[in-house]
């Protein structure tokens, strides 16, 4: 029995990439809202957050529809 099955590696990498993505989104949102003067940076932060959520949902849907068993047989 393998310690780490081959099929779990793409899932671990994807979760890591999503964690890095949301970490960067948090840093950008924090700086836009904390150091932005006036209302305009807060509007940009709201638009950026909605775009980030839409991009995340799109990439998550595409990832869930991806057939890794077929890809592994092609290697």
Key terms for this structure?
75 residues, mainly alpha, elongated
Structural overview:
With 75 residues, the protein is an all-alpha fold. It has a domain at 21-68. 80% of the residues lie in helices and 0% in strands. The protein has helices at 9-35, 40-65, 68-74. Helix 1 (9-35) runs antiparallel to helix 2 (40-65). It is elongated.
- Computed CA radius of gyration, to the nearest angstrom: 18 Å
Number of helical stretches of at least 4 residues: 3
Most strands sheet: none
- β-strand amount: under 5%
Taken in chain order, the helices and strands follow as HHH
Q: Helix amount, in percent?
A: over 70%
Structural class: mainly alpha
Strand element count: 0
Distance N to C terminus: 22 Å
Question: What does the average pLDDT come to?
Answer: 88
Shape: elongated
Low-confidence runs: none
What is this structure, in a nutshell?
The protein is mostly helical and 75 residues long. The chain has helices at residues 9-35, 40-65, 68-74. It is built from 3 helices and no strands.
